[in-house]
Amino acid sequence: MCRLETAPVEPDLVGPWSRNTWIYGLRTPFSFVFLGWLTLAQAISPAFSVEIYLFTLLAAFLGLIVGAHYIDIGTSKEKFSPYLRIPHAMLAVGFVSVALGIAVGVYMAVRWDIVFLAFVLIEGFAAVAYPRENPKPVHSYLGFGLTWGTIPFLGAYLIQSSTISLLAVGLSIFIGLSVVMMHHLAVMSRESPAWKDALYLLKIYNYSVYIVAIAALAGKLVGF
Is the pTM of this model over 0.70? Predict the structure, then answer.
């Protein structure tokens, strides 16, 4: 199931993308999972605009992928430095990217739905607070489930539909729980005797989300 002989320090700290810190900082495949859930949220919306979808991806990429992960690596040099060369500018680039992501989100809120601004502010705060583990409650399973699952899913649905349905709420809770389980599998992949099984289950989870998101988006675009 896994060719590694010892558990990796991070489940995605393998493969060619780990050779460059800037590329590794994008934290694939976890970031694709995050974008996959955002895609599903917008695909199930009764209204769908490709322009809004692309702006959503841009805001998430800048703030919650580049920004949050670069801040994480720049803040956790002791953890990553034995495996990666940490550029001095990485932390600063992370903060700038979060600011740009927030700016895109504010633009979206002003243009399409001002209520979306609440989601932008919450996720902008989480992009900085979670990787820096300050305040502590944000850096918890509950905090992770809310800020990397439930809340962004609802925000993505809202900006497309200008409303929030019970279906979206129910799915957002499930997705919050599922990303917590993904997070725990990632922890198990480096700390559990069953780390190979954890890596295998992570791979199944990741590809399942990719398939669901691509199918939902394709169905929406072709009107199926």
Answer: yes
